[in-house]
């Protein structure tokens, strides 16, 4: 082996050792590369979902008392609807009936999902997004919304809207009939909105004035169904 070969071999060994010190050695415990298509989560951003009731000790404090688990024993905890309904109120009794039919019902989680659904539906209706609306609405409500969108398109009208946010969302009513459970929510939100004609001239409202909107919406689902989705089944303006 001549001197040049020895020098080249020494350089190659040096490069190898340098790379190993920087990159490390495989141990069999490395994380696999991130695959954006391998997400196995079950969330759906176009439905109002109902998560399982909490089972860990800290979260269970909201729904249990010293006597144990009221879901298992058929009882009700004194502060079960804290922040949602007054103890011993008519609304609390109605929510108890919903929880009796749907053991996974959680008032706070439901309100969180309802707020998301409200913004999605209001925005999708303004944009004429039928694909987003369809799974969120009952058949009758969808027909009503779709009819309004179709008429708007026929007249060459568009809606320029900005959803600013929800100021308040509270459960106003609830009931259970068999396995069908319904919860009515009163929403108070702020938006800017105007309707424009085919020439982009505003013919109703304006794009800068913030309006207060008060709605009362009712959501429903079948508690016996494995489908966690709640659908909007009725809409109305708050008194």
Structural class: alpha+beta
Mean pLDDT equals 77
Radius of gyration (Å): 28 Å
Number of strands: 4
Features of this protein?
4 strands; 4-stranded antiparallel beta sheet; 239 residues; alpha+beta; 7 helices
Describe this structure in words.
This protein is an alpha+beta fold. The chain contains seven helices and four strands, in the order H-H-H-H-H-H-H-E-E-E-E. The chain has a four-stranded antiparallel sheet. Strand 3 and strand 4 (231-237) form a beta hairpin. The longest helix has 21 residues, at 3-23. It is elongated. 18% of the residues are buried.
Short description:
This protein is 34% helix and 27% strand. By secondary structure, it is an alpha+beta fold. Strands 1-2-3-4 form a 4-stranded antiparallel beta sheet.
Topology diagram in text:
Elements: H1 3-23, H2 57-60, H3 70-73, H4 90-101, H5 107-127, H6 130-133, H7 139-154, E1 158-177, E2 180-196, E3 202-222, E4 231-237
Antiparallel strand pairs: 1-2, 2-3, 3-4
